[in-house]
């Protein structure tokens, strides 16, 4: 059986019907209410459908409310400004980002304008080749007709922000200090972590147990977004609620700086992080993935 998103998610499930039924399979769309021993989905008409897990053929998580393509583009624009690498260049509606190869987000081209087309791929390949970097494309769903499967499939999850009480145990700094970097445990230079375009960035720490990064940027539609990233809990301190406390403090920080919504970008296989953010009120907005521009052929376009 395909893996299920957290209970409370909106899903589309294809499942097998009893032998001899025509057609042999059907679909149900609704809110996932239980996953064991039966999968229970409540549909929009308040009907309840129960499906044995063994009969499930495919599962797809859906956004809680319909999301327009323009909303995906606007959020991705704010997210690109929040993690822009150390060098940026616009080319025919694409934002090209480079940062010496540190992190996929900071070293990929993302289509952010209606003018973005696949005709720009040769120029994108050349731009990255000049920097001795692989020409990765960050492709949000529905923005370009590219069928290649790609890698690092990611859920972009969002929530609304409200004012929250400060947590005195969580500290904020404008730059990551040595203790923050030691807890983060990733080889990413400070200049990549602190980079932001037309926004504000902060580094949160909960003693020596957990760290995270927040960045507030504004989308073209005027929405001020808080992006939470680089959340990491020291192995000795896991399963004690530290990531939740840290993220809640970052949500409060973002609200204080005028952000009305927040987003996270989570790899689809990171079930623990998806559950954490789901419990914090985040829900699926859209998906994106990375595709090597050199791998594209007429069959994948």
From TrEMBL:
What CDD domains does the database record attribute to this sequence?
A: NAT_SF
List the protein's name: GNAT family N-acetyltransferase
- Per UniProt, residues of the N-acetyltransferase domain are 156-297
- Which Pfam families does this entry report, sorted A to Z? Rv0428c_C, SH3_Rv0428c
Q: Which residues form a coiled coil?
A: none
**Alphabetized SUPFAM superfamilies for the sequence:** Acyl-CoA N-acyltransferases (Nat)
């Amino acid at each position: 059986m395909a893996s299920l998103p957290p209970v409370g998610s909106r899903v589309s499930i294809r499942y097998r019907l009893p032998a001899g039924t025509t057609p042999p399979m059907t679909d149900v769309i609704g809110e996932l209410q239980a996953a064991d021993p039966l999968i229970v989905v409540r549909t929009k008409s308040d009907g309840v459908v129960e499906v044995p897990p063994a009969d499930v053929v495919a599962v797809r998580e859906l956004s809680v409310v319909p999301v327009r393509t323009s909303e995906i583009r606007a959020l991705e624009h704010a997210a690109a400004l929040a993690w822009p690498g150390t060098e940026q260049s616009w080319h025919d509606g694409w934002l090209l980002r480079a940062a010496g190869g540190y992190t996929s987000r900071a070293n990929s081209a993302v289509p952010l304008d209606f003018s973005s087309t696949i005709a720009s791929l040769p120029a994108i390949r050349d731009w990255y080749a000049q920097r001795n970097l692989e020409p990765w494309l960050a492709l949000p769903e529905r923005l370009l007709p590219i069928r290649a499967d790609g890698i690092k499939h990611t859920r972009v999850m969002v929530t609304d922000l409200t004012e929250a009480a400060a947590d005195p145990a969580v500290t904020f700094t404008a730059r990551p200090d040595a203790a923050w970097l030691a807890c983060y445990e990733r080889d990413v230079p400070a200049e990549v972590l602190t980079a932001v375009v037309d926004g504000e960035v902060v580094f949160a720490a909960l003693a020596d147990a957990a760290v995270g990064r927040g960045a507030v940027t504004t989308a073209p539609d005027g929405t001020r977004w808080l992006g939470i990233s680089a959340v990491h809990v020291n192995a000795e301190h896991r399963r004690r609620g530290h990531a939740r406390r840290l993220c809640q403090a970052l949500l409060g920080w973002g609200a204080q700086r005028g952000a009305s919504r927040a987003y996270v970008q989570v790899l689809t296989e990171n079930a623990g992080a998806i559950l954490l953010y789901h419990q914090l009120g985040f829900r699926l907005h859209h998906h994106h993935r990375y595709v090597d521009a050199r791998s594209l052929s007429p069959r994948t376009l």
